[in-house]
Structures are given as structure tokens and as C-alpha cells.
Design a protein that fits this description.
alpha/beta; Rossmann fold; 5-stranded mixed β-sheet; 42% helix; 13% strand; globular
């Protein structure tokens, strides 16, 4: 992040096809410092190869199939960057859609991290109009990030809606934990994100108390199962996009 914007590039592919697309691009590039952030575990596949290439070429985009704001202004923007954060953000979106069917959610995935910066600061940055068209100018944004939360704030501090960005990421908590335990301890799990969305979305603040209790109970159940069995519950490890 402290290197020249002319040479640095950081990518966080959400699935394997995006990883292949990003790797192909990086291996063909010259005179750049390319960083790809990805783990070695099995993950869900969200896009076929053509859509993955298109998404990675843009570097950032709305996932229409995970959004419910088509033709309307969103109540909430759920954003993410990274494989585990993307899965947990999608799962949080499912929880919110089940509890609040009329909630307008826009789901934004970031592959090219420097899209968060203005185009005046980085060659890959978005201009303010494009940024606002994705993240809105005044709606709450829950951003789940595969890194330190301060980094997103550092990149986006000059944006119009930065005051409504609520970033969740690595807080250096955890040791020998299951993946869900680690996510919960760092507040990047689906339940923490859904609760955060209720707290930050004005239309949900007065009607979301029962849903928050259910989410907290599910979170406790996950921790209890992991403590007793040493692994995450099947409904966590086997989770898939159901809608």
C-alpha cells in the first residue's frame, strides 16, 4: 500500500474462476507488483468462466442475483472483498432477505482493491460518479473485508458516502479455531453482519430486535457446536446460496 500507485495492484478473487482470471492477468503483466489474496480451502463457485472474466475485468460490480434493489434505491449496500468475506456476506444477505422480504439490498463485490480509491489517486480507481452509483451517496454500507478494516477506510476516506461505511475485517483475534469461530471472533461472520445491518439501516432499527435475537442465538449455537465437536456444524460447512 505504500508503494507507488503506478506499479501496485491488489486482487481478492471471490471464487476459483475469478482466481484463474486474475492469475492469468497477473502472469501476463509486466513491471507491476501484483498481490493476489486467496486461501487454499475449497470454496463455493459463484460464476462461470465468462462471467468471472467479465467481473474481474471490471474489478468491482453489483451481483444482480444476490441483490433485491433492481429498479429502486437500496436500503442497504452489502459489500465484500475476499473469498471467506464474500461467502459470509452472501449468507448474511440470505438471513436478512428471509427476515425482511421487502428490504432492498444491493450486493457489491470488489476484486480489484484499488477500485476503492479515486481515479486521481490510482490508475484503477473509480471516479466519484461511478463510485456513488455503486455505493450510493447516503445509504449504509456494510463492508466485509479480508484484511484490516482501516485499509478500506484509508482508501475510501475521500468518498462522498465514507461516513456511512462500516467495515468488518481482521482484528487479530483467534488461535486454533474452526473457520466459523475465527469469523465470529473477528465479527466477519454472517450473524454479526446481519445484526450490523439491522443496527445501521434506519427502517430496521425499530423492527429488527426479534431478528437480532434469533441471529445471536444461531451464533451461540455455532460456537457451542464447534467447542463440543472441534469442527463447524454441517449447516455451516455445507452452506450454499439457496435463492
Amino acid at each position: 500500500m505504500n508503494k507507488s500507485a503506478e506499479v501496485t495492484r491488489i486482487y481478492l478473487p471471490p471464487d476459483v474462476n475469478c482466481l484463474l482470471s486474475v492469475a492469468d492477468h497477473c502472469l501476463r503483466s509486466v513491471n507491476y507488483v501484483n498481490v493476489i489474496v486467496s486461501d487454499k480451502q475449497s470454496h463455493l463457485q459463484y460464476m462461470d468462466m465468462d462471467n468471472a472474466v467479465r467481473h474481474c475485468t471490471k474489478g468491482i460490480g453489483i451481483w444482480e442475483w444476490a441483490s433485491t434493489d433492481q429498479g429502486a434505491e437500496p436500503d442497504l449496500v452489502m459489500a465484500c472483498a475476499g473469498d471467506i468475506p464474500t461467502q459470509e456476506a452472501l449468507a448474511a444477505t440470505v438471513l436478512l432477505r428471509h427476515e425482511f422480504p421487502d428490504l432492498k439490498i444491493r450486493f457489491v463485490n470488489v476484486v480489484d482493491l484499488f477500485k476503492m480509491q479515486p481515479d486521481s489517486e490510482h490508475p484503477h480507481g473509480l471516479n466519484d460518479r461511478d463510485f456513488d452509483s455503486l455505493f450510493t451517496a447516503d445509504r449504509p454500507v456494510i463492508f466485509n473485508f479480508h484484511g484490516y478494516p482501516w485499509l478500506i477506510h484509508r482508501l475510501a476516506y475521500r468518498r462522498n458516502n465514507h461516513v456511512n461505511f462500516h467495515v468488518r475485517g481482521y482484528k487479530e483475534k483467534g488461535n486454533i479455531n474452526t473457520p466459523m469461530e475465527l469469523a465470529i471472533r473477528n465479527n466477519i461472520d454472517r450473524f454479526s453482519l446481519a445484526i450490523d445491518a439491522i443496527d445501521r439501516t434506519p427502517k430496521l432499527q425499530r423492527v429488527g430486535s426479534h431478528a437480532k435475537e434469533r441471529f445471536r442465538n444461531l451464533q451461540i449455537d455455532c460456537l457451542t457446536y464447534a467447542h463440543q465437536n472441534g469442527i463447524d456444524a454441517p449447516e455451516i460447512t455445507g452452506w450454499k446460496w439457496p435463492l
